[in-house]
Amino acid sequence: MTHARIGKKIPPGFSLDIDLAIPAGVTALYGPPGAGKTLTLEMIAGFVTPDSGRILLEDAILFDAESRVNIPPRRRRCGFLCQRDALFPHMTVRQNLVFAARRLPRLERHRKVAEMVERFGLSEAAAGRPRDASRALKLRASVARALIAEPKLLLVDDCGVDEPLLRQIREACPAPIVLVAPSLDLCCAAGELVILDAGRVVERGSPREVLDRPDSVQAARLLGIPNILECTIAALDPGRNTSRLEFERFALAAPYLPGHLRGDRVWVAIRAEDLRVRAAGGEPPVNVVPASLVRATPRERSVRLEFAGPIFVDLSQAEYARQKDNKEWLVEFPPEALTVL
Amino acid sequence: MPADYSPLWLSLRVAGLSTVVSLIAGVWLGHRLRDNAGLSAAAALPLALPPTIVCSYFLFPRFDWRIAAAAGVVFALPLLMRASRSAFRHVNHDCENAARGMGASEWRLFWWITLPLAWRPIAAATALAFARVLTEFAATLLIVARFSKLAGPRP
């Protein structure tokens, strides 16, 4: 079992208190800056001493505040990839790898270095200094160096690892991986997602489950869902599997909400990409609300429309090009898009 | 008249010995005190003393060039300690942590990572300390001249 239950106070005002079970595979930590993600990794690696708690790695105690056990970082066998490039600048890339392989027997050392050079495509850069290598190459060299030491747990801070590289790491590293994910796309590649905010775990579970059905307003906000609206349950009909939600300016039909009563105040999260828009007129409206467009902001792969309210809708660029001349807009809320928190 | 180079050799010997001793002690102290601002400030205090006062502590009855070198250490050590401490503090901690994560002992870490990354400012400070001791005239005047023929008989 690999498990970290750690507490740390950093004056003024920040305290971290988390309980993190680390299963095999990839565990992604996601949260805003200052949530305590890097601090968590540093405490597991042993670079920062927690005030309280216990850290277990494969059932071996690395840290225990009560019995004052604190194994030094060099004996923890936790590989650590930090945010900044940490290749030793005074050595060549190959010497960096050899330094990490020190623990292995001499013959095995060279075989392992050669294998990692091959696996991460470092053969051209191996003889040069890290400063001459590109950013991507430096990252791959850091990964190779961390894996050569055969860590029992790999801690990856937000250092620019993308999905293909993460897949490569998983192939080369049987140990559990804890990853600070800078984006939700990378979270989806993990087996477990933990959302942190202000030093606390807000939510955890499989990425699909957490991303599709966040269970608190805080988690929904952290996941970047722009439409989080408060409403009253006006009607509940288990027979027809429907309910009616009354918002400040409009009412919507939604699926039946088990565990709620009529008159309850609830929060509803709606993803911007789940909403649809169309021009006024045409077929009779169901779950459709007239809205006035405030602004349209082009994004990388879509266009975000902001309507008065505010309601945010993401459209594909092609769809926006087709609809941009609409005089009056209708926003359609598909019932399955409404997530009650 | 043949040139007498003995004062030059003496100065070089005194400056060389005191620089080597100060370098070893200064690097060690600088590394040990890199996170301790109070003690490192205290260790730098001799920099604030006038050279004549420092030298007056070394006026032993018998002249030995090694005593002059000891006086030189008092001048050179704070310089080297401050410079080493500052150099060690500027070493990328991520590099050191990465090495620790790979199982490097603190000894190995120091010789393979910390010192190679910090040697430039330490080398510059060593040159400065050598020059400082070599040209320390107050020490020469007080310690060496006391036993020199040039200074005349002792009062």
Question: How does this model look, in words?
Answer:
The complex is a heterodimer of chains A (341) and B (155). A 6-stranded mixed β-sheet of chain A has the order 7-8-9-3-10-11, sandwiched between helices. In chain A, 23% of the residues lie in helices and 34% in strands. Chain A has helices spanning 37-45, 93-100, 106-119, 135-148, 163-172, 184-188, 207-212, 217-222, 317-323, and strands spanning 3-10, 14-21, 26-30, 52-57, 60-64, 69-70, 78-81, 153-156, 177-180, 192-197, 200-205, 227-237, 242-246, 251-255, 265-270, 276-279, 288-291, 293-298, 302-307, 311-316, 329-332, 339-340. The longest helix of chain B has 29 residues, at 106-134. Helix content of chain B is 74%, strand content 0%. Chain B contains 7 helices and no strands. The model of chain B is unreliable at 151-155 (pLDDT under 50). In chain B, α1 (6-32) runs parallel beside α4 (65-89), α4 packs across α6 and α4 (65-89) runs antiparallel to α7 (137-147).
How would you summarize the topology of this molecule?
The complex is a heterodimer of chains A (341) and B (155).
Chain A: E1 3-10, E2 14-21, E3 26-30, H1 37-45, E4 52-57, E5 60-64, E6 69-70, E7 78-81, H2 93-100, H3 106-119, H4 135-148, E8 153-156, H5 163-172, E9 177-180, H6 184-188, E10 192-197, E11 200-205, H7 207-212, H8 217-222, E12 227-237, E13 242-246, E14 251-255, E15 265-270, E16 276-279, E17 288-291, E18 293-298, E19 302-307, E20 311-316, H9 317-323, E21 329-332, E22 339-340
Parallel strand pairs in A: 3-9, 3-10, 7-8, 8-9
Antiparallel strand pairs in A: 1-2, 1-4, 4-5, 5-6, 10-11, 12-13, 12-15, 13-14, 15-22, 16-21, 17-21, 18-19, 19-20
Helix pairs in contact in A: 2-4, 3-4
Chain B: H1 6-32, H2 37-43, H3 51-56, H4 65-89, H5 93-101, H6 106-134, H7 137-147
